[in-house]
Amino acid sequence: MSAHHPFVHPFGMPRMAAYAAGLILSFIAFVMWCYLVHLFHDSWYGSPSSFDFALFAGLFAVLTGLQLVLSPFIHHRVGSRATSSMVHPITETALVALATLFWFCAAVATAAYVGVPHCVFSSCRTSQAAIAFSWFSFIAFALALGLLLRDWFVHRGNLIHVRNPDGVAPAAPAAYGVEKPVEAQPNTSVAADSGVASHHAEHSVVVDHPAAVPAPHAPQDSHAVPMPETSPDTSHMTMPEPRPNYQA
């Protein structure tokens, strides 16, 4: 099974089942309303307007159900522009909403006309059965409309069986699922460092250190005996001769 088949989608299967149920129930109700309108025309001068509107609602619902059930498969096979417009989400939503509205109005109008009598004749029982199937058809299309709106909110209108002519599911809009490219920003760290360095250079105070001054010499003592610069060589000194003994 193809990855783009409508039944693959988790919401596509319940929605298609609701379309099929609405088609079957609408067909049964349409046949009953056809019988009642024919019966009224044969027995009386004409059928009530509510019955005529129910007949129109049944015919519209049957044609809508056929279009909703078959058009995805036809578009999956053909993939033309005409079939693409048939399975467009806006077209599908409009058809389902109209079928739901028509069945609701028809069920209310016919129920108000017939009421809840104690039926003895077959025509009365048929009318009650037709009204019941009209309500069932309304519930089926209302359920399909709810699933369709849920698909809209979850996928933002990008339904699974809506494809381009190539048979490929349309890509998501640019605002969803696509990250915006990050613009390259200028490297401000180097500029900030150079700016801080220039700022410090402008406001820095130059301190001139004085040259080293030699310490003054200590004053010499006039009474001090000058010391020879070099020590005398004692190896060649002659010792004085001893004095003769002094005799008193």
TrEMBL record:
Entries under InterPro entries matching the protein: Marvel
Start and end residues of each stretch annotated as Disordered: 212-248
Keyword terms of this UniProt record: Membrane, Transmembrane, Transmembrane helix
One Pfam family of this chain: MARVEL
Bilayer-spanning residue ranges: 16-41, 53-74, 95-116, 128-149
UniProt keyword Cytoplasm, yes or no: no
MARVEL domain boundaries: 23-145
Protein's membrane topology: Multi-pass membrane protein
Location in the cell: Membrane
Protein name: MARVEL domain-containing protein
Native source organism of the sequence: Tieghemiomyces parasiticus
